[in-house]
Amino acid sequence: MILAFRNTCTVFSHYVLNPKPYFPLLLISTQNFSVPNSTLTSSSPSLCNKARCCSTFFTNSMAAGDLSNPSSEKLEKQFEDFRHHLEESGNLRERIRVVATEIESVTRHIYASLLLVHQSRPVAEVLEKAKSQIGELKELYSRLSEIVRECPGQYFRYHGDWKSETQIVVSLLAFMHWLETGTLVLHNEVEEKLGLTPTEFGLDVEDYLIGICFMSNELPRYVVNQVTAGDYDCPRKVLKFLTDLHAAFRMLNLRNDFLRKKFDGMKYDLRKVEEVFYDVKIRGLAANGDSAGEKQVQGQS
C-alpha cells in the first residue's frame, strides 16, 4: 500500500511540475495502482488546494481584465461606429443604383429610337421621338443630385455607381446633336441639357470624353447606310468631323486607362470612314465639294 501511494504521488507531482504532462502515463499509473480516495485526500491536501487556488486566480484575473480594460471599450465603440457608417453608405448606394437603373432604362429607349436613322428614316422624325425623353433624363439626374447632396464632398466616392450610364447618355446626346447640327456638342451644353450644375453636381470630364468616343463608334455604320441609300456626300462630312475630333483628342496627354483605349479605337472608326469615302470617290460618286477632310487625313498620314 505504501509503495502504491508513493507511485501515485510521483505521477501527480510529475503532472503538476511538467508543462507537457504525459497523460497516458497518468492513466496507466492510476489504473495499475488503485488508492482509496480518503487516503489520497488526507495525504495530499496541499496539492488539491494549490490546484483550486490557481484555477480561481486565473478565472478572477480574466474576468477583472475584461471589465476594467478601457481599450476593449474603445475598440467596441470604434467598430460600432464603423457598422453605422457602412450601413448608411450601403443604403445610399442602393438609392443611387435605383436611379441609375432608371437612367439606363431611358437610354435604351432613346437608343432604340435613334437606331431608326440607320434605316434611312427622316432625321427630323427620329430626333423628335428621341428628344421627347430628354426631359425624363433631366428629372432622374435631379433626383440623383439630391441623393448625392446628402453626403457633401463624397461625389467621387459614389461616382462609379452611375458613371457608365452617364457615358452612354453623353454618347446619345452627342449623336443627336451631330445629326441636327453636324458639330460636336460641348461639355457645358450636355450639362445644360441634363440640368447639371458644375458647383454641386456636374458632369465629369472623363465621362464626357468617353461618351464622345462611344458616339464615334456609330458614325461608320451611319456612313455605310447613308451611301447605300444614295447620300454620297455623307462620307466626306463625317470624315471631316472625325478628323477634327481625332486631332483634338491628340492634344490630350492620356494615361493607359479606359479612356486611352477608347481613343485608340477612334482611329479605327476614322479608317473605316476613309475607306468608304475613297471607294465613293474612286467610283466617281462623290460630290465636287469641299475636300478638306481628305486633305487633313493626307496631312496626318
Automatic annotation (TrEMBL):
InterPro entries: Translin, Translin_C, Translin_fam, Translin_N, Translin_sf
Alphabetical list of CDD domains matching this protein: Translin
Domain of life the protein comes from: Eukaryota
Annotated keywords: Cytoplasm, DNA-binding, Nucleus, RNA-binding
Main subcellular location of this protein, as a coarse class: cytoplasm
Signal sequence bounds: none
Pfam family, one: Translin
UniProt-recorded Gene Ontology molecular function terms: RNA binding; sequence-specific DNA binding; single-stranded DNA binding
GO CC aspect terms: cytoplasm; nucleus
Compartments where found: Cytoplasm; Nucleus
Gene Ontology biological process terms in this record: RNA metabolic process
Family, as annotated: Belongs to the translin family.
Identification of the protein by name: Translin
Source species of the chain: Nicotiana attenuata (Coyote tobacco)
